[in-house]
Design brief:
By secondary structure, the protein is of the alpha+beta class. It has two domains: 11-130, 2-Layer Sandwich (Phosphorylase Kinase, domain 1), CATH 3.30.200; 141-233, Orthogonal Bundle (Transferase(Phosphotransferase), domain 1), CATH 1.10.510. The chain has seven helices and nine strands, in the order ααβββααββαββββαα. Strands 1-2-3-5-4 form a five-stranded antiparallel β-sheet, sandwiched between helices. A hairpin with a 2-residue loop joins β7 (178-181) and β8.
Length: 234
């Protein structure tokens, strides 16, 4: 790999390890994007960036950190998903499966017409996604209260119903993982999303609904968790 290219990735400080740099280089050389633009989120488990494409557009690059992510927590979530029942508890294999799982979940959600980012490609611990927003990224629901909370909530329930009909449960649903894009909800962060055949699926669904109700009650709406669950699974 050319030295100049390697140094370009390292301008973000202690974000990328050598293996991740090589993975990014591979995806970039395949034409998926030209260069990283700016960080959207830098955390302990993943780093999310915008990136420029050769056509001048934007995509999102999500990178799961190989050294500092809590792979034990990842394994705890993924081991009950029947799609990954044969997965062994090995750090890199779990992180790679986690990345593939998010891509696979997003593909299935998009096929079910759930409003969520289109997954573009993945390799190892790196996932490429559609950019949601105009010039700036769409804000998270926690930072952008809807003008009409009731209408927004009904749209959220309708999209979650589509997700459930696709036999998926989000399992990490909250105002942190819903974007408010032009007064329309967009679901994000599908790595914990699991099959309805997961032994913990109902537990996750009820937690998702509870988180949603807590938020919209603060917006002044009267919402009932049991009634919301009935609407989603009907």
């Amino acid at each position: 790999m050319p030295k100049i290219f390697k140094e370009k990735w390292k301008t973000w400080g202690n974000v990328f390890d050598e293996f991740t740099i090589q993975t990014l280089f591979k995806l970039s050389s395949e034409g998926h994007f030209e260069r990283l633009e700016s960080p959207l989120f830098v955390g302990k488990e993943s780093n999310v960036f915008t990136a420029k494409t050769e056509s001048g557009g934007k995509i999102v690059v999500k990178i799961y950190r190989l050294q500092t992510c809590d792979f034990n927590r990842m394994y705890d979530y993924i081991k009950s998903d029947p799609r990954y029942s044969s997965l062994k508890k090995q750090r890199r294999q779990i992180i790679f499966a986690w990345t593939k799982r998010e891509y696979r979940n997003l593909m299935k959600a998009r096929e079910a017409e759930v409003r969520c980012p289109t997954p573009l490609a993945f390799k190892n611990n790196v996932l490429l996604l559609e950019f949601i927003g105009d010039e700036a990224p769409a804000p998270k629901l926690k930072d952008a209260i809807p003008e009409d909370p009731r209408k927004f909530l009904e749209d959220v329930i309708d999209n979650y119903r589509k997700l459930y009909r696709a036999r998926l449960v989000h399992a990490d649903f909250s105002p942190f993982n819903i974007l408010n894009h032009n007064e329309k909800p967009v679901f994000i962060d599908f790595s914990q999303c699991t099959s309805v055949d997961d032994s913990r699926a109902n537990e996750f669904l009820e937690r998702d609904i509870r988180n949603l109700c807590v938020y919209f009650r603060k917006s002044g709406l009267k919402v009932d968790e049991a009634e919301m669950k009935k609407k989603i699974i009907s």
